[in-house]
Amino acid sequence: MAAWYRDWFNSPYYHKLYFQHDEGEARFCVQCLLDYLKPTPGSRMIDVACGRGRYSKVLAAAGFDVTGTDLSPENIRFAKEFESEHLHFYLHDMRLPFWINYFDYAFNFFTSFGYFDTQREHNAAVRSIVQSLKPGGTLLFDYLNVQYAEAHLRPDEVKIVGDTRYEIHRWQDATHFYKRIRISDPQLPQPLEFCEKVVKFTLDDFTQMLAQQKMQVTDVFGTYDLQPYDEKKTPRMIILAKRNSA
Fold it and tell me: How many angstroms separate the Cα of 48 from the Cα of each of 70, 97, 163, 180?
């Protein structure tokens, strides 16, 4: 299970499986956020764990100066094809410091957190993201809603995408969600297998991690159109927090 995300997110089969989470979904989410946040044109934004850059591209097209970072070399190689004067991508581990006191907004979309083995690593990631913000900057975590996910866990599923067959098995324990994915494809000499592992972070957990970095939670939403968060009824936990101005 160690560092499963390094290989899985670097695989083309990851993007093939999650193809429905496309730029259309990103545009909808980003437009709702921008309508709510009303950022100043030209604001500097960082998309942490940007993947192939679908959110970053939408933000840049809306008139902002956007930097995307990701741990996957293949993701960054792909995203760099779309770089422009106001859109840049870097290979980077979120646990390590990036640019300090530079960005007006920091975004972490699509449950791109909760993957590390220790709480110390998660704290380091939060600290590094916060440090990249200017005083008064805004941070967003888009995370799964634990109680909703627990109640709606689908243990077994088979998905066929083109010639590729994905056999998916999901389970949970007291602290994590797991998803084992077995991939069969005519182009593969033998099936591949990956196993996702995500921490069951609650709103209280995020509030505490952010408070340790002098961040104040200002809003919590439960859907991408920013409906109120309900721990039993809404699928997402979208947290906005503000860095102290001092």
Answer: 7, 12, 32, 25
Query: For the chain, first and last CA: distance in Å?
Result: 41
As a whole number of angstroms, the distance between CA 135 and CA 153 comes to 39
The predicted-structure confidence for 166-188, as pLDDT tens digits, reads as follows 999 999 999 999 999 999 999 99
Q: Which domains does the chain have, with CATH numbers?
A: 4-146+202-243 (3.40.50.150), 149-196 (no CATH)
Collapsed DSSP state (helix, strand, coil) of residue 144: strand
Per-residue pLDDT tens digits for 73-109: 999 999 999 999 999 999 999 999 999 999 999 999 9
Query: CA gyration radius for the chain?
Result: 18
Checking phi first, is residue 42 left (phi over 0); if not, alpha (psi -120 to 50) or beta?
A: left
